[in-house]
Fold:
Amino acid sequence: MIMKNIFILTGAGISAQSGLKTFRDTNGLWENFKVEDVASIEGFEKNPKLVHDFYNHLRPQMLSSMPNKAHLAIADFQKRYSDGEVNLITQNVDLLHEKAGSREVFHMHGRIDECVCQHCQKVIKTLSDVSFDMPCPYCRALKLKPNIVFFGQMPMFMDEIEKMLRTCHIFIAVGTSGVVYPAAGFVMTAKYYGAETYLFNLEKAENNFYFDHQVLGKASETLPDFLENI
Ligand SMILES: [Zn+2]
Structure:
């Protein structure tokens, strides 16, 4: 038996098919908010109330959305594949992979159901609204921030991800444009270390030089068959 490790990276495109909007296709506006106001450290320092209002508005939408066939196919694949590791890394802050039944999901850009205390660094689960004048349950500081990686912050799990990229045999990017770094560089690293690389996306990737195969179309239609045949 030849061992083959699989690395799956998912982005906004996979959740778009579950009705969640991405901020890239809205001309810099996300639900009528300016991206730099609600997704940057500078914006948060300037107006934490606005940032919390924004995520309080987004949270119920994300929590009530349902996974589509692409999320379900990935979860099913993880359960049945036994010829190596399947690592699932997502740029999405929604929980659609978990809802589909995926267990270990690396949320490199954070999660909508968490906030983090900027004083003691503890992560707090939250399914309801958060406000800037709520004290941290651990240290009582008024420093809660959505546990979302903002522009100007380092994505999470980068050391683990680097290791997975070096040891994967098949790299699959789903619904991610290949424009935003560092995720856009993942395919390059995987390819450098010898992986065969696939893209499942509506349109061609900007960095398509590194993809061996590009399958254009809705991932909910193209991905299930592919994973069925690995
Ligand atoms: Zn704290």
The radius of gyration is 18 Å.
